[in-house]
């Protein structure tokens, strides 16, 4: 029997003995006799009030249990009784044990035919759980509303093609007020292409398909466009299907990525693809479908005499030569293949050809046309070295090496009758010298032919010497001074780099410890050293043996390491970080550089290549790029070192950019150990 039926039953029968009801639920029924002023309640009252039915018979006792917050209940009850109205109140009561519970009291007065009050019948129910649910729901709604309002994402709900809800972030993002947006078709906020994408997403979602994240272009109130990431899903809103979504403005992120992409894969000076891009292109070429054999020529192009132009006219003129030469090379070689600036005054091209003669004709065209594209008073001549795949090898490093060898052989031709050369076994000069160097390298350590020089690293704020880079030199008994550019690649190729590298580390630690001044030691580490199985173990043992503080050791690597094995590189760098050793990324900006790697590598210092520093006083774009690199590095918690500082003007600009450290001839040339010690005593910090 439902409660309203029970109340009707009370009214009709005047039932006073109510004990048969409400024994098993948190509810009790009651009846108040107006004439006798007696109150009857069922035993269920014990569950709610914590007292027996007998103790609750007094008409005022239950009112004494009403919570202080709701003392107006008696007044309301009298008012409804006088008005002959039914009542339904919700209020708090306090049990004997002090616990507060919410109750619902519903009843109706009974009158005689003459309108004389007879009885007041009703029931009281424990609704504490219902109230708690309401409070939880209210709190949840408030939290959800706060989350929506404070979200970094714009949030919307669209129904039947129009917006029915937007948060404050949506208003701010689009430049419209909420009043303007509600009722607006969300297609009005999209450009034409994005509107088609949004419609397709809606249809897919309606069919239960996952739509994931989508990039769209939104049109703001002022007509400007932003790039946004959209996530959406179909929901039910106010009883009807709708789409709810979040939008994140990624315009700045996309522009930054585009800028980083350009810096990573294109040369700033010429606009040509850089070395990094070249490797990607070769990789794509070799990974093409089977049945298409890799047959091509690799051209290594050098602008001969460019150093003289730089010395005579300045680097800004040299840069102009590189730009003009790059533009002409692009015209000549791009129709036949792929051209990239390899670094400095060097370019590299991959050209598909059926015969060697085709490649030679292209090389001759390069030699003829490039000088003609340059100012007449500048005698800069391209020299071209060539290697062929598969004749000379099937690995890009091998082909590059052979093309480079051929190019240098061409440069050594005294009569300049030829300016291009194809690699062949007849290039004995280079081969003999390389073999001699490789052979002598094995005994160079024993004969103490290697020397270390130290170039100071300067704090640009204080001008104090904070560190030193150890630079390896080889005085060969027959060839005299041998450039590290000549013997280090050979050492890496033959494996001698490991013994030489260990000697450099040990000797440099001993030298710096002998100074007695706590400065940072910077040591160049080749990719083969870093990624060898024993490097980390040997380094740890060397630190233990010498007692050299790991936090004052800074290992310099080039980003070319990443091209070998990014996962292995990341593992080793993380081990070094845990050991306390610092790591610098050297020669940043020379072609391999990619900002995308910086977030992955555990690097403490970023060294900007000297090519960015040399003409930054005259070249505004290089200065801007340098500033951008410094800002990005600082945002990634890296310190920045500028290499090749030669003028006070360069130093002033870099200090203004908040560059942390500097190296270069402005401060000091590389010095023998004793001279370096003397230099430390002479240098005074800026007061």
The unreliable regions are 1-24
Order of strands in the sheet with most strands:
16-17-19-20-21-22-23-24
The end-to-end span amounts to: 96 Å
Radius of gyration: 42 Å
How many alpha or pi helices?
Answer: 26
Which percent band covers the strand fraction?
15-25%
Q: Using DSSP, what is the number of strands?
A: 24
Q: Could you say which overall geometry the principal axes of the C-alpha atoms support?
A: elongated
Please characterize this protein's 3D structure.
The protein is of the alpha/beta class and 687 residues long. The protein is built from 26 helices and 24 strands. The strands form four sheets. The chain has an eight-stranded mixed beta barrel with strand order 16-17-19-20-21-22-23-24, surrounded by four helices. The chain has a five-stranded antiparallel β-sheet with strand order 2-1-5-4-3, sandwiched between helices. Strand 17 and strand 18 form a beta hairpin. Helix 11 packs antiparallel against helix 12 and helix 15 packs across helix 16. The longest helix has 23 residues. It starts with a helix and ends in a 5-residue tail after the last helix. The N terminus is likely disordered.
Short synopsis of the structure:
This protein has 687 residues and is of the alpha/beta class. The protein contains 26 helices and 24 strands.
Fold blueprint:
Blueprint: H1 3-13, E1 27-33, E2 38-41, H2 45-49, H3 61-64, H4 73-82, E3 87-94, E4 100-111, E5 117-126, H5 128-150, E6 154-159, E7 162-166, H6 168-174, H7 178-181, H8 192-206, E8 213-219, E9 225-237, E10 240-249, H9 251-265, H10 275-286, E11 296-304, H11 306-313, H12 315-333, E12 337-343, E13 346-352, H13 356-372, E14 381-389, H14 396-411, E15 420-422, H15 428-444, E16 450-459, E17 465-476, E18 480-482, H16 484-494, H17 497-515, E19 520-524, H18 527-530, H19 535-546, E20 553-558, H20 560-564, H21 566-579, E21 582-588, H22 595-598, E22 605-608, H23 610-613, H24 620-635, E23 639-642, H25 648-656, E24 661-662, H26 673-682
Parallel strand pairs: 14-15, 17-19, 19-20, 20-21, 21-22, 22-23, 23-24
Antiparallel strand pairs: 1-2, 1-5, 3-4, 4-5, 6-7, 6-10, 8-9, 9-10, 11-13, 11-14, 12-13, 16-17, 16-24, 17-18
